[in-house]
Amino acid sequence: MNILVTGILLSGTYALIALGLTMQYGVARIMNLGNGETLVAACFVAFWLYTGLAINPLIGLVIIAPAAFVINWGIYAVALRPLVNRAKNRGQLEVDSILATFGLLFLLQGLMIVGFGGEYHSYTFLAERFEIFGNSYGLNRVVAFAAAVLIFVALWLFLYRTRQGTALRAVAVDPDAANLVAIDVARTAAFAFALGGALTACGGALLSTFYTFNASMGVVFTMKALIIVIMGGVGDVRGAVLAALILGVSETLVASLIDPGLTLAATYTLFILVLLFRPQGIFGRAPT
């Protein structure tokens, strides 16, 4: 039970990170390899707000999420929209975006190393015990999970109860058909990319409350987000959440029962198994 609960608590932040990439890749068709750097940048901002200005990380989300939204919209407009305009098909856009965001990864990582150095950072926030089923867990982990759930619920309501959310889902399924029913596909894609960045930043801010981080760890979280997105089905919010839960529990299981150093190996193994036996994702349909 202890392993299960720990894995579930971890999966909350994993889900937010993956939902960010789901918006960017599933809707805008941008495979953002700099997604993990957005997460790390949010960790540093949350760290600075708390240690420098004494702003609670949860309240800091009100600053971090809109800032990440605006910055990611700017990145899309300046660096990625030209790629979208010249791409003849989705395949070419995906290849071009991988190359472009690969460079973005190193640019952001370099800026953070210059600004914060290469050492690890952490801060003490809600470092108290919280009892669940007779076992003690960090209150910061529990609060981070609860906040992640609230953000997911808000995203779900937005996607399935608003016109803008419906437009996002329509573009994810078929941008050409969406264009025929008067949906501004270009603007919707930009909005999706910015929203994805904001979700990832929220995940990073919450992760920073209980996780030690440094400027170079973004690529690991990009890989995990990619695995979750593919496992859940590209563009499927339900699948991303379920896949995040599976990954969180699997990593905790391996770290607790075998060796913490094998968690990445377990993640890659899970990824390979999904590609071999369920490449369309948990809720996806096999191509006919």
Automatic annotation (TrEMBL):
The transmembrane residues are 31-51, 58-78, 98-118, 139-159, 189-213, 225-247, 253-277
Can you list the GO cellular component terms from the UniProt entry?
Answer: plasma membrane
The main location is membrane
GO molecular function annotations of the record = transmembrane transporter activity
User: Which InterPro entries would you find in this protein's record?
Assistant: ABC_transp_permease, BCAA_transport_permease
Set out the biological process GO terms recorded for this chain's protein: amino acid transport
Its localization reads: Cell membrane
Q: Which UniProt keywords apply?
A: Amino-acid transport, Cell membrane, Membrane, Transmembrane, Transmembrane helix, Transport
How is the protein disposed in the membrane?
A: Multi-pass membrane protein
Q: Which domain of life is it from?
A: Bacteria
PANTHER family linked to this entry:
AMINO ACID ABC TRANSPORTER PERMEASE PROTEIN (PTHR11795:SF445), BRANCHED-CHAIN AMINO ACID TRANSPORT SYSTEM PERMEASE PROTEIN LIVH (PTHR11795)
- Family from the record: Belongs to the binding-protein-dependent transport system permease family. LivHM subfamily.
- Protein's name in the database: Branched-chain amino acid ABC transporter permease
Organism of this sequence: Aquibium oceanicum
